[in-house]
Amino acid sequence: MAIPSSDTKITPFRNDRPTEGGRDMPLRALPHNIEAEQGLLGSLLRNNRAYEKVAEFLRADHFANTVHGRIYEALGRLIDRGQIADPVTLRNVFEHDDGLAEVGGAVYLNQLVDALATTVNVEDYGRLIHDLAVRRELIALGSDMVEQAYSVKIDPPAPVQIEMAEQKLYGLATLGASKNEFQSFEKAIATAIATAEAAYKRDSHIVGVTTGFRELDRKLGGVHPSDLIILAGRPGMGKTALATNIAYNAADAARKAQETGAYTSGAVVGFFSLEMSAEQLATRILSDSAQISSDRIRRGDIGQEAFDRIVAASQTLSRLPLFIDDTPALSVSALRTRARRLKRQHNLGLIVIDYLQLLQSTPGGRPENRVQELSEITRGLKTLAKELSVPVIALSQLSRQVESREDKHPQLSDLRESGSIEQDADVVMFIYREEYYLRLKEPQLNTPEREAWDSKLERARNRAEISVAKQRHGPTGPVDLHFEGEFTRFSDLIEDNRLPERRS
């Protein structure tokens, strides 16, 4: 029996923007396929178990025919309650539904079942319906973008409109797109074994992206894909310096692997610097590599020999797979868009953000307070880490309450506007340099306190403590590094002679 055509009310999309010839585009019906909707409903009415194949990605509002959407929704409710969904049980649901009456009432439900020869195409029908729904949403989004762009209102400005459009497009791209399903434990354990084997075969025995610091890599196992790592400290502790060193070490390891063909734990790095310019970051890395203070480089206070070292270092550094974005006040949605682009174009493997509190929440959002806004930002960064399967290192300021304590070692409770920072982070690390605080309280010469102070300063000189305060999949505790303020450089500490290991 043929299924009669239903009266589908479709709102046409009109392109009001004139063409080159000055004429309007003709009215066009929005994309839809009534036969596919009828075929899917008939399949589900005949075999309720087929509902499992489409329930995860298909919603009632994806149907172009609103009556079909109501039938699908009612059918799903019955199946979810463990009841049979067929023309008989659904007839009671639709007894007073004028829309169903217009297409034939209960007779129409029977026609849906009788006209179907097979139920094997149910998922194909569902995917087609979903695809057409996304196309209709895309048309609506495009129309809204055109209307908003034509608006003479100053707020929101064009860059914010672009970010809002990007966010909506991302939401549309993930509409109903559920690719992750249950996997057997056999498959999960095989993946775990493969990961362990890869770590075993590496000389460093780490599975994640290297930080470039032996003891820190040993504590963390490198920084892992999908992890959000918070690196926090008070001003002056060296957060940016450490983050820059990690970015350089990871990118340099990737460069060496590209040039030698060796297996590596390095990565292509995307560095989002919301505080410093790209030129300032480049100068820091150049200073470290050439072993010439950045202050001397900026002032040009260098001789021929130093200049030759800078040129030699710059030739190597220019081959680093390190990309810097120094856009100020960047939003999470804009950061996500740029990171996706870098992932697609250059196989991005590590994201560094300096720093968390300078990020803006998604345009269009209205958080009630700064704590809620920061919580939204950290959730967005964790989602980004999982989506791109890369580690995200985000720097964070600590609250001033650290300065009011006798013991200046940071604690998790010191995270400024903490909200969900601690909750969302997979790893939280603090930087603490006792030398910094000792120099703030230098006693006068020839006093009893001076000798004790000198002794403490000698032990703390050029030493930085990186405290792993939280780690979901590993131990916590301190790691000592060597710090050279002149070159803003961290390195491994050799205890017997207190000299750092030099980079090759």
- Tally of alpha and pi helices: 18
Give start-end ranges of low-pLDDT stretches: 1-23, 496-504
Structural class: alpha/beta
Strand elements, count: 9
Average pLDDT works out at: 78
CATH class descriptor name of the largest domain:
Alpha Beta
Q: CATH homologous superfamily of the largest domain? A: P-loop containing nucleotide triphosphate hydrolases
Strand percentage lies at 5-15%
The order of strands across the largest sheet is 3-2-4-5-1-6-7-8-9
Can you lay out the helices and strands and say which pair or pack?
Layout: H1 34-46, H2 66-80, H3 87-93, H4 98-102, H5 106-114, H6 122-150, H7 158-173, H8 185-201, H9 214-220, E1 228-233, H10 239-260, E2 268-273, H11 278-290, H12 294-299, H13 304-317, E3 322-325, H14 332-346, E4 348-354, H15 370-388, E5 392-397, H16 421-424, E6 427-432, H17 434-440, H18 448-460, E7 463-471, E8 477-484, E9 489-492
Parallel strand pairs: 1-5, 1-6, 2-3, 2-4, 4-5
Antiparallel strand pairs: 6-7, 7-8, 8-9
